[in-house]
């Protein structure tokens, strides 16, 4: 049996060689798919079988087909030339791609380092031999770049309330090949459990129907591909729908209650404005303030001007007059209100009927009565304050009398100064008269001792001059009067 199989194998090889020689060049890649993790290195091998055993030139090119995107026209990694063993590498892949070829071994290798998602496409090996253009001149394979899934993002779509339908979603932003998703459920005590009977798990979406309290718990999503896996978890708390309804109802009820209170306040304010004003018939509270104008005295040319002092007596009389006017005005308002009451008895009766029907309003009136009593107490306090101010006013009157006495003393002092001033004026007049007498005597002495050369102008004798002096100064009269007495 083994011998028979060996014979069949030799015949198959001979047949392949015969067919190859007949058909032409044959190029093959042993693997249909190559998988590599992103950032790793991959080696893709290509074998070729020419029609002729010996060839002067063999050209081997490695390329990548377009991936179908709009701006992708494909990739040319490089080309090998057998005549001088020269390799031409694309500038974009210098230092990243290598081509190693063995013409005798009829093998060529493409080596890619630090593979990225851009190399994720079909890779082609193309062999060119002059004179050997028939047969299969190229072969291709798929390069799959594996990328671990990113951490998935878990979300809840819908309202987690009793009887509602919700969905739990799980998505990884990247991953190659595309990751698969699986959901696991744990109860509130973190004990594993199976998914609800009607739940569906498809493409990372877990659909839950007619959720209840038992649906609450922890849910974990696992995203997995050929490289590795990643997880995310979410906590689901299903609440009764009445909780939200109760909160909404409470808010609405609070708004309605606040609006009702506002309307009631506005209504009460309007009713208070419509009711007639009541005036206190007692004596009004009168405040007294001390005010004293300064007195001024001006001296000049013997005239004195004084400003009179406006005392507290006139001020109090003005306050009492104002209080009587206010009392009369309040009495007139009271009489006007009584007149309006007699002129409109029907309106007054209606108001009394409404007051009798509304017990709440009567309680408000009682409160107002208590408030009036409080005002009466404050009025009594005001009366006490008025008495205190009256006492202070009496003290001010006493102070005013003291100031009046001081003012009278000042007047007496002023009169004394005026009398002294008159005496000084009299003394000044006496001095002035004496001064005039001295001037006359000086003039007379000058006339007596003056000599103009005329002896007639001089006294005839000493007796005449003496008589003239006696007549001038009145001494003769004084002597005569004394002699007569």
Automatic annotation (TrEMBL):
Ranges that cross the membrane: 245-267
An example Gene Ontology CC term for this record: plasma membrane
Membrane topology according to the record: Single-pass type I membrane protein
Basic and acidic residues: compositionally biased ranges: 307-370, 378-432
Subcellular location field: Membrane
Pfam families, per database record: Ig_3
Domain Ig-like: 149-237
Key words, A-Z: Disulfide bond, Immunoglobulin domain, Membrane, Signal, Transmembrane, Transmembrane helix
Region ranges (Disordered): 296-432
Entry protein name: Ig-like domain-containing protein
Originating organism: Ameiurus melas (Black bullhead)
